[in-house]
Design a protein that fits this description.
The chain is α/β, with parallel strands linked by helices. It folds into three domains: about 180 residues, 3-Layer(aba) Sandwich (Rossmann fold); about 170 residues, 3-Layer(aba) Sandwich (Rossmann fold); about 80 residues, K homology (KH) domain (GMP Synthetase, Chain A, domain 3, 2-Layer Sandwich), CATH 3.30.300.20. Helices cover about 35% and strands about 20% of the residues. The strands form three sheets. Strands 1, 2, 3, 4, 5, 6 and 7 form a seven-stranded mixed beta sheet that branches. A six-stranded mixed beta sheet has the order 9-10-8-11-12-13, with helices on both faces. Helix 8 links the parallel strand 11 and strand 12. The longest helix is centred in the middle third of the chain and has 37 residues.
Length: about 525
């Protein structure tokens, strides 16, 4: 699949998308440009609506699958190009853009046609001209006649004919298609040739290792094709095993927490590369960035999220969008890792985030980060245990792991805990076993009397769904069942069926007999 890189040349504006063969958008001038292009091409693939709000939103590389007519590709949105050293945030953002350029097959350089070509545009055009990949110049905001002047000026950048485009209104995508088509076809041809060469090499290697003797001891090279007997259902063509193109579904893991707890650093350490922008500043991450990764023979999709502050401290619209995207990442996740600072564990905001995860029915793992800098480890662990016991009693047994993302300690234990709770979160109990368990629970503690002095009865139970485990119980007058008995059943399920640390939902349904 081809990769596109969308690049902008001024303070980073919103992202731009494209995917089919690798293409990369570079940041453009102040104002929504590359991100708006990403939204117009790959909106359904998860482009962020924040791209239409204000310039300078994009910081990390954001990838999304895109499609333009019959072209499919992966588009990479990048931060705006700025000249700065690696010791400042802008310099680290620039490093991410440079990495995206080395991985892409085509770069789209976006300029603001209404603002015209600026000296900064010309400076970064010189840099891109030396890049090892082809560059397509895109003049954005060309709707109407306001951008004609900037469009004509763009010819002077020496990057070929500019593509007039309006990402916000979807105009000019046909011209962009014509510009991308030759690169897409060339990339597909290279991939097909590489696959054919690899298959041929594997065939030669297999032939060299195979014994040249048939089942009756005769040399295979001395046999005629008609002398070889085929088993029923075989033919002379190569047998191809049917393979699911999607493969095993990756486990979606969202890393959540307060600002500056080391979420991006943790993902970088797991990946073994500086994939995300990090730094000592709080609130560096703005978008929810998903990255595919493998560990222990399993596939994961790690999602880095923006730090969640207290609701009273959220003022501007950009931070509200960041919070909304983080909450959406929690809803789409299967396991959430709540990352804590070892020197400030389990304050009110940490518990609020944990409750959000539990209320959404997601499996939860507590990660105590910066363990190498912890001043009082015994007191820290005791505080975590006490707060979980008192404030998250509904999910007793949540695993907590101490780690240091900066030094790479405790990462294997963290992933083992993720797999453990994911297995519990997917657990299914057979109906017969569940009803035998229910009978024992009712015998140990009979149901109380209802409001009208008649004893309640639970007649039948079944597991309605998994992820999280949800059980339906059919009974008489469910509205009369006290909350204490619900907790008794939930605790029994958690202990007897090894579901510690995950949310369990009980649904009580009234029987059809009104006189029961």
């Amino acid at each position: 699949m081809t990769s596109w890189l969308i690049a902008e040349d001024r303070p980073a504006g919103p992202a731009s998308p494209t995917r089919g063969f690798p293409c990369s958008p570079l940041p453009s001038s102040a104002g929504p440009t590359s991100a708006s292009l990403l939204c117009s091409i790959a909106w359904q693939a998860g482009a962020s609506p924040s791209c239409t709000i204000c310039p300078g939103v994009t910081r990390d590389r954001r990838e999304a699958p895109g499609r333009l007519a019959d072209l499919s590709f992966r588009i990479v949105d990048t931060a705006g190009l700025e000249e700065a050293g690696p010791e400042v945030l802008e310099g680290r953002m620039r490093q991410q853009t440079d990495r995206a350029l080395t991985e892409a097959h085509v770069a789209l350089m976006l300029i603001d046609a209404r603002a015209g070509v600026t000296p900064l545009d010309a400076h970064f055009a010189d840099l891109l001209r030396k890049a090892p990949i082809p560059v397509i110049l895109v003049a954005n905001k060309c709707e109407g006649g306001a951008g004609k002047g900037g469009l004509y000026e763009a010819y002077g950048l020496g990057l070929g004919d500019p593509v007039p485009l309006s990402a916000e209104h979807g105009e000019g995508l046909g011209v962009l298609y014509d510009a991308l088509r030759p690169f897409h076809d060339a990339h597909m041809a290279e991939e097909a040739k590489a696959e054919a060469d690899a298959a041929y090499a594997a065939l030669l290697a297999a032939g060299a290792q195979a014994r040249d003797v048939g089942p009756d001891g005769a040399a295979l090279d001395a046999l005629e094709p008609d002398d070889i007997e085929l088993a029923d259902g075989e033919d002379n063509d190569f047998a191809v095993e049917a393979i699911d193109p999607r493969g095993e579904r990756p486990i979606q893991v969202a890393i959540v927490g307060r600002p500056n707890t080391g979420k991006s650093t943790l993902i970088n350490r797991l990946l073994g590369e500086e994939r995300l922008v990090t730094g000592p500043e709080a609130g560096v991450t703005r978008d929810a960035i998903a990255v595919d990764w493998g560990w222990g023979g399993r596939r994961f999709r790690l999602v880095d999220t923006a730090g969640l502050r207290r609701k009273a401290r959220i003022e501007n619209s950009l931070e509200k969008l960041m919070v909304a995207e983080t909450l959406n990442a929690i809803r789409l996740a299967e396991v959430c890792v709540l990352l804590l600072d070892a020197n400030m564990v389990m304050d009110r905001q940490d518990l609020t985030i944990a409750r959000m995860v539990v209320d959404e029915g997601r499996a939860l793992v507590i990660g105590v980060n910066k363990w190498d800098a912890c001043t009082d480890r015994g007191a820290t662990l005791q505080r975590v245990a006490d707060r979980l016991e008192s404030s998250l009693a509904q999910v007793r047994g949540v695993p907590n792991v101490t780690l240091s993302a900066l030094q790479g300690r405790g990462l294997d234990q963290l992933m083992e805990a993720v797999l453990l709770v994911h297995g519990r979160w997917n657990r299914r109990v057979s109906t017969s076993r569940l009803n035998r368990w229910l009978q024992g629970m009712l015998e140990r503690h009979p149901l109380p009397l209802g409001k009208h002095g008649r004893r309640l009865k639970i007649r039948y139970a079944t597991q309605a769904k998994i992820r999280p485990p949800t059980f339906a119980l059919f009974m008489t007058r469910p509205d009369d069942l006290p909350e204490s008995y619900v907790r008794y059943l939930t605790s029994g399920l958690r202990e007897d069926f090894d579901m510690a640390g995950i949310p369990i939902r009980l649904l009580f349904r009234a029987t059809k007999n009104p006189y029961a």
